[in-house]
Design goal:
By secondary structure, this protein is mainly alpha-helical. It has 16 helices and no strands. The protein has two domains: 1-183, MFS general substrate transporter like domains (Growth Hormone, Chain: A), CATH 1.20.1250.20; 188-409, Up-down Bundle (Growth Hormone, Chain: A), CATH 1.20.1250. It starts with a helix and ends in a 29-residue tail after the last helix. It is a multi-pass membrane protein. This is DHA1 family inner membrane transport protein. InterPro entries: MFS, MFS_dom, MFS_Efflux_Transporters, MFS_trans_sf.
Length: 409
């Protein structure tokens, strides 16, 4: 395993802490700045929107530059954003810091996915991407409880100071451990955007939106399900969420291994299993034992799709993987927002706190249908440069750029 992957994972961990760590600190932030809790909540939704914007816009702007230098610049942006947040004297300054940090989020994972894939043999790419994403899933496990604990003990600003330090360490690690990765010759914005003329790129992005829309449609209101339906005390919810996060950590690695073996087949199986897990969760949510089992499985199966989804879009955009990869990160966040919105509609319509689980199952089922239809289209249509990944894979150890070292999914 290239040690540079650990530096990328540490950067992902810091970015994940920035995204999730503030969730448990919103009451302190609201009290400090004298704003309502819904207004404080804009620090979360504003971050997600900025991630989607940065994943497309910033990635497009940097596609032709050396990828290692791009990662270093993005980490500088990340450190600057968290430093602004740590010293913010007023609420708008804190929001500005959140936006600055969020802009690097999508581009970092988009570019980092390509760099990680290029550091290993072709048959280990999904595993390398999974390792980089492990930083994000670790932050999902630890971000809320640790960020909340630190902020409650030393003030909410201390959380941002800690994340700033992590960013500096990750910056040094990338500088020392990640090999130079020049952008392919002839890379241009027009060429990168050309990837979006391929139907399979859009299929991959759509499946990402629906897969994560289903999981986060169920997860966004899970605290209400746990307390109002399953009967858990509110004080136990953070620890149950840690259990969910532990599932995502394990599922991320398992999904990477499965995607390296059989990409489309493994994704279809995982989406079918996720649909079943959410449906069973909805039917058995009144049982504490089944809720614990379902929560763990939901995290594991839900995040198992992440490496495969990222690899799939890169394979079908092998001559423009950076832009496609960034677009897929944006699709993750669009899915998060879509799932939360649809589940909110179900709650508003009076269907109860189990309804988000059914909404999530329905969205995931649609995602499975889109994947199967897209895979069938790819299988039965003749190979063509505009909609099919490259079919030749150089020998392991080849120095050919990652976008050319593509195996047929």
């Amino acid at each position: 395993m290239p040690v540079g992957l650990l530096a990328l994972a540490l950067g992902g961990f810091g970015i994940g802490l920035t995204e999730f760590g503030i969730i448990g600190l919103l009451p302190e932030v609201a009290a400090d700045f004298g704003v309502s809790e819904p207004v404080a909540g804009y620090l979360v939704s504003g971050y997600a929107l900025s991630v989607a914007v940065g994943a497309i816009g910033l990635t497009a702007a940097i596609a032709r530059f050396d990828r290692k230098k791009v990662l270093l610049a993005l980490m500088v942006l990340f450190v600057a954003g968290n430093l602004i947040s740590a010293i913010a004297p007023v609420y708008p300054a804190l929001m500005a810091g959140r936006v600055v940090a969020a802009l690097c989020h999508g581009a970092f994972f988009g570019v980092g996915s390509v760099v990680a894939a290029d550091m290993v043999a072709p048959n280990r790419r999904a595993g390398a991407i999974a390792l980089m994403f492990a930083g994000l899933t670790a932050a999902n496990v630890l971000g809320v409880p640790l960020g909340t604990l630190l902020g409650q003990q030393l003030g909410w600003r201390s959380t941002f100071w800690a994340i700033t330090v992590i960013g500096v360490v990750a910056l040094a690690g990338i500088r020392l451990l990640v090999p130079p990765t020049p952008a392919p010759s002839g890379t241009s914005l027009r060429g990168e955007l050309g990837a979006f003329r391929r139907p399979q790129v859009w299929v991959s992005a759509a499946v990402t939106v629906l897969a994560f829309g289903g999981m986060f449609g169920a997860f966004t209101y899970i605290a209400f399900t746990l307390t109002e339906v399953s009967g858990f005390a509110a004080a136990t919810v953070p620890w149950l969420l840690v259990l969910f996060g532990a599932g995502t950590f394990a599922g991320n690695f398992l999904g990477g291994k499965l995607a390296d073996r059989a990409l489309n087949t493994s994704l279809a199986a995982i989406l079918a299993l996720l649909t079943a897990v959410l449906a069973v969760f909805a039917l058995t949510a009144q049982s504490k034992v089944m809720t614990i089992v379902s929560l763990l499985l939901m995290g594991a199966v839900g995040l198992a799709t992440a490496p495969g989804l990222q690899l799939r879009i890169m394979r079908y955009a092998q001559d423009a993987p950076t832009m496609a990869s960034g677009a897929n990160i944006a699709a993750f966040n669009v899915g998060n927002a879509l799932g939360a919105w649809l589940s909110g509609l179900a709650l508003g319509a009076g269907f109860g706190f189990v309804s988000p689980l059914w909404v999530g199952a329905g969205i995931t089922l649609v995602g499975l249908a889109v994947l199967l239809a897209g895979s069938a289209l790819s299988t039965h249509r003749p190979p063509h440069a505009t909609d099919s990944p490259a079919r030749e894979t150089p020998p392991a150890g080849s120095s050919t750029p990652a976008r050319q070292q593509v195996a047929q999914p």
